[in-house]
Specification:
This protein has 8 helices and 7 strands. It is of the alpha+beta class. The protein folds into 2 domains: 5-261, CorA soluble domain-like (Beta Polymerase, domain 2), CATH 3.30.460; 295-329. A hairpin with a 4-residue loop joins strand 5 and strand 6. Keywords: Cell membrane, Membrane, Transmembrane, Transmembrane helix, Transport.
């Protein structure tokens, strides 16, 4: 586990003034009406979170939610601040696993504070997004919220796109007759289905998180210029949610088709086995009926018995090898 770290920034009148202030100085800058303060706490311990709560007079329930990595994504409005928490996700194509990390934020009148439980989410990409849209900083914390949420939602799109590519690969391999490939297909289908469920649990609640932040912007006349940015962000969340819906239908179709193909392959094998049984049943019935009373090679001699046993074993082994190679056994 990484050590606790704090990263800070101060803007004055929309212009970056300082990037490395002491955490104890945060309150001093917050008291200045022309300043905007941001601080990021990565992997904070209980002492650091308690210090943050005391310094900013934050609601204890919000602090508890920020510490809980299993908390449902949500946005809450309190008397002096707004709290939001959500998950940043990415899909690791090499391991086939979904990587999720908790990101929370506290918004004050002139301050914005992010809390990350680990360093899996790169906050530098958010800072770069703020720098690329430096003209929005003059609108205060709402602009910082937009940059953070926009970066997280873009991660949703990348994750969903990766899952989409994975499902397309499943569709390409769906009609492979190789039995090992069929078993691998089932494992990959299950893994993608599991990842998709986790993505939906993250993306769907994000609509309410963005909607809550957007309402705060619409209620502030001096932030009206940010409204189109939030509307575009909300549209992106809806598109990501709709994309997950279509992927759920696709993965269900792949799963059902794979089961139908497995049943079809089983029916073909049963047909072949039945055919072989019919072929073998004919000489078995004839020799059993006549009791092999006619002379045959080795008739009346001991070596004939051993030749008969050897023939049975060789034929049985040959059939076993044939069926094994065709994966009927």
């Amino acid at each position: 586990m990484s050590e606790s770290s704090v990263r800070t920034r101060v803007w004055r009148n929309g212009q970056l003034e300082s990037e490395h202030i002491e955490f104890d100085q945060v309150s001093d800058f917050l008291a200045q009406p022309d300043c905007l303060v941001w601080a990021d706490l990565c992997n904070p311990d209980d002492e650091l979170l308690a210090k943050l709560a005391k310094e900013l007079e934050l609601d204890p329930h919000a602090i508890e939610d920020a510490r809980d990595e299993h908390e449902r994504p949500k946005a809450m409005r309190y008397a002096t601040h707004m709290f939001l928490t959500t998950n940043a996700i990415r899909y690791d194509a090499n391991s086939g696993e979904l990587v999720s990390t908790r990101v929370s934020a506290f918004t004050l009148q002139r301050g914005f504070f992010t809390v990350r439980l680990d360093d899996a989410f790169d906050i530098s990409s958010v800072v770069q997004r703020w720098d690329d849209n430096a003209d929005l900083i003059k609108y205060g914390p709402r602009a910082l919220i937009h940059g953070l949420l926009d970066e997280i939602v873009d991660g949703y799109f990348q994750t969903v796109e990766s899952l989409d590519d994975g499902i397309e690969e499943l569709e390409d391999d769906l009609f492979d007759e190789n039995s090992n490939a069929a078993r691998q297909l089932q494992r990959r289908t299950f893994a993608l289905r599991k990842s998709l469920v986790e993505v939906r649990r993250t993306v769907l609640p994000m609509r309410e998180v963005v909607n809550t932040a957007m309402r705060r912007v619409n209620e502030s006349d001096h932030n009206a210029e940010l409204a189109p940015y939030y509307e575009d962000l909300y549209d992106h969340v809806l598109r990501a949610a709709e994309w997950t819906e279509s992927l759920r239908d696709m993965i269900s179709s792949v799963f059902e088709t794979n089961m139908a193909l497995a049943d079809l392959r089983m029916n073909l094998i049963m047909k072949k086995l039945t055919s072989w049984a019919a072929i073998i049943a004919v000489p078995t019935a004839i020799t059993g009926f006549y009791g092999q009373n006619v002379p045959y090679p080795g008739f009346g001699h001991e070596w004939g018995v051993w030749a008969s046993v050897a023939s049975i074993l060789l034929i049985a082994l040959a059939l076993y090898g044939l069926f094994k190679r065709k994966d009927w056994l």
